[in-house]
Amino acid sequence: MREGDDVYSTVDLTDDRGRARHARATISTLEGEEELEFEAGTQPGAVRVLRGRGMPVLQGFGRGDHRVLVNVVVPRQLTEEQRRLLGEFEQTASEETYQPDEGFFEKLKSAFR
C-alpha cells in the first residue's frame, strides 16, 4: 500500500517467533527482498520504519519511508500436547512476563514522526 511517498506493508510472525524468541522475516521492498530481524517481545501492531526506502519524492529530493506493520499469527489448531505445554507456561508466568513497555497509541504516534 502507498500513501504519499511512504510505502506500507505487513509481516506475519507466528506467536512463538514474534513474542518469545528472536525472529527473522523476509519482506518485499522496492529494491527487492530484505530480511528483517525482530527482537524477542515484539508485539502485534509494532511498526518498523525503513527510513528512505519508500517512493522517490516527486519534484524534490529524497525518498519516503517503508513502514512494516507486525501481525502476530496465533495458532488455531493445537495438539493436546501443545495445549498442555501452553497451560504449563501460563501457570509459571508472572506479571513481569507480560510487562508492557509502551502503549499501542504511543508506538503508533512515534512511528509516524
Structure summary, number of beta strands:
6
Low-pLDDT stretches are: none
Q: Give the SSE order as H and E letters.
A: EEHEEEEHH
Q: How much β-strand is present in the residues?
A: 25-35%
**Please, what is the CATH homologous superfamily?**
Urease metallochaperone UreE, N-terminal domain
> Any idea what the radius of gyration is?
17 Å
Estimated helix fraction:
10-25%
CATH class: Mainly Beta
Instruction: Count structural domains.
Output: 1
Task: Record the strand order, biggest sheet.
Answer: 1-2-6-5
CATH topology: HSP40/DNAj peptide-binding domain
Structural class determined from secondary elements? alpha+beta
CATH architecture: Sandwich
Shape: elongated
Largest sheet: 4 strands, mixed
Number of helices: 3
Distance between the termini: 19 Å
**Mean pLDDT score, rounded?**
84
Polypeptide structure, described:
The chain has helices at residues 15-20, 80-92, 104-111, and strands at 2-3, 6-14, 23-29, 32-38, 47-50, 66-73. It has one domain: Sandwich (HSP40/DNAj peptide-binding domain). The protein has 113 residues and is of the alpha+beta class. Strand 3 and strand 4 (32-38) form a beta hairpin. The chain is built from 3 helices and 6 strands; from the N terminus they run ββαββββαα.
